[in-house]
Design goal:
The protein is an alpha/beta fold. Helices cover about 35% and strands about 25% of the residues. It has 2 domains: about 1-370, 3-Layer(aba) Sandwich (Rossmann fold); about 375-470, GMP Synthetase, Chain A, domain 3 (2-Layer Sandwich).
Length: about 475
């Protein structure tokens, strides 16, 4: 490590520590850090500007990826020292990172954690899924772990978590940031955890019945599945000890039929985390105890003292006007190992900057994050998200909880077609139910779909992110 790299690292870590207020315990019952969570827009801007001025030299001196990008753009680190300067920096997308990691595997040049720091204070290695390219690897330090836990504790405190809770963790403990980050935050809050790895649904249902956790931590899909398992065992999830469903990995809060089905099944409140491995391994977005509602629209809070959130046009990748819908872009200002400038997270939302009823002043993602650009389906020129199919299917209460979308090209004329597979006890090739589902889908996305009704428990259940789209077009 060069002297300049070490100096900028020291300056960056000092800046991070300067803005970590109330780090070890909540200041009151409503906010972990009122000075930050309730900061004015001017105060948030000042924090972001000071962090940007410190992080850009650090990135330039400690990441070859960033140094090469600065040089290729003809920019010096001092050229991006405030929010007004960010527009000079084109957004970074996943493909750019993927190319970088393929050049010097396995870590790429975007990391700011060299081997010598990893050996001194390494914490954990995480990986992206790699479904659209080479997995991107991120090594995090013990310093990251502490900031990560602090940010997650602030978010979970906003959701109403207290030491009186017991959390049953049922997410995968592989290279996924959600489970580990939640566990670190819960430990900081002094909240007890029941680990639920390596168990099937009946074993987990038995844990709920026997040890009476108050919070389930899992994907929305698994919360539905576990509730049905309990019912099959003669247990009533709505009568259980569970008062909160703490979900991540898939959208749920903004999809009204899914949200209502979950909350009715468990008689519990749904709360949600949003983030990504690259820039938001802790809570990027989170719901609040006030209900996460603005009128009839759901929303998630963002944490602007540790991240800068923007929305951009999906075609030009230029910032959209205030109040307009766009793709999420995040600059992470809360990490030693993975600070990032303008990474394209890629979920559609609308940002709103007024103060929430809970007192938090940071930006809110209206409508949450329910449609990722990567998931957009183009069927004969009609574009839609899988979540729209979910909304149509889940609005029919007699259907099972699982569904699948199958895209194929018709042999006779090559036309792309879609089949939606749903579960119901009265399954067969044709029924009034198939017409009802077809009509609901057509109303939601203006596309005619073939409907297949299969027996309950035919479609796969997943613990982590459900894979509900099978695109077989062009594979025949």
């Amino acid at each position: 490590m060069t002297d300049r790299a070490a100096q900028t690292r020291t300056a960056w870590l000092a800046t991070l520590e300067k803005f970590k207020h109330d780090p070890d315990q909540p200041a009151n019952g409503e906010m972990w850090s009122p000075r930050l969570d309730g900061a004015s827009r001017d105060e948030l801007t000042a924090i972001q500007n000071e962090k940007l001025a410190a992080v850009t030299p650090f990135l330039y001196e400690n990441s070859r990826f960033y140094r090469q990008r600065f040089d290729s753009l003809g920019l010096a680190p001092t050229d991006i020292a405030s929010l007004d300067d960010l527009a000079k920096w084109p957004v970074v997308d996943k493909s750019e990172m993927t190319l970088d990691v393929e050049a010097p595997p396995p870590f790429g040049h975007y990391t700011t954690l060299p081997d010598e720091i990893w050996r001194q204070r390494g914490w954990m290695l995480f990986s992206t899924s790699g479904t659209t390219g080479t997995p991107r690897i991120f090594r995090y330090s013990q310093i990251d772990r502490e900031y990560w836990a602090w940010a997650n504790a602030r978010a979970m405190h906003a959701m109403g978590f207290t030491p009186a809770d017991t959390v049953f963790m049922m997410t995968g403990y592989g290279p996924h940031v959600f489970a580990w980050g939640a566990q670190m935050g819960l430990a900081k809050m002094g909240i007890g955890i029941i680990p639920g790895g390596g168990m099937d649904g009946k074993m987990r249902a038995g844990i709920v019945e026997r040890f009476q956790p108050t919070v389930l931590c899992c994907t929305p899909s698994y919360a539905l599945y576990l509730g049905r398992v309990m019912q099959d065992m003669g247990l009533d999830p709505a009568a259980s000890s569970v008062s909160k469903l703490f979900c991540g990995g898939e959208p749920a809060l903004a999809i009204a039929p899914t949200r209502e089905k979950l909350q009715d099944l468990w008689s519990a409140k749904l709360v949600e985390f949003y983030g990504c491995t690259e820039v938001a391994p802790h809570a990027g977005g989170y719901s609040c105890a006030a209900g996460g509602r603005d009128g009839e629209e759901q929303f998630l809070h963002l944490m602007e003292d540790v991240q800068i959130w923007e929305t951009v046009d999906p075609e030009s990748l230029q910032p959209v006007a205030a109040g307009q819908r766009g793709l999420s872009v995040c600059s992470n200002l809360n990490s030693e190992s993975s600070p990032q400038l303008r990474f394209l997270v890629g979920d559609f939302t609308t940002l709103k900057h007024d103060t929430c009823a809970c007192g938090r002043s940071h930006a809110r993602a209206m409508g949450c994050f329910a449609g990722r650009a990567d998931d957009l389906i183009n069927l004969r020129g009609i574009k839609f998200f899988p979540t729209q199919i979910e909304k149509a299917v889940r609005a029919i209460p007699e259907l099972g909880d699982e569904f699948q979308i199958v895209l194929t090209s018709r042999d006779s004329d090559g036309m792309d077609v879609m089949k939606v597979v749903v579960e119901h006890a009265d399954h067969g090739p044709a029924s009034a139910l198939t017409e009802q589902v077809a009509a609901a889908v057509r109303l939601e996305i203006e596309v005619r779909a073939d409907i297949e009704v299969v027996a309950p428990d035919t479609l796969p259940k997943t613990e982590f992110k459900a894979k509900r789209v099978s695109d077989e077009r062009g594979k025949g």
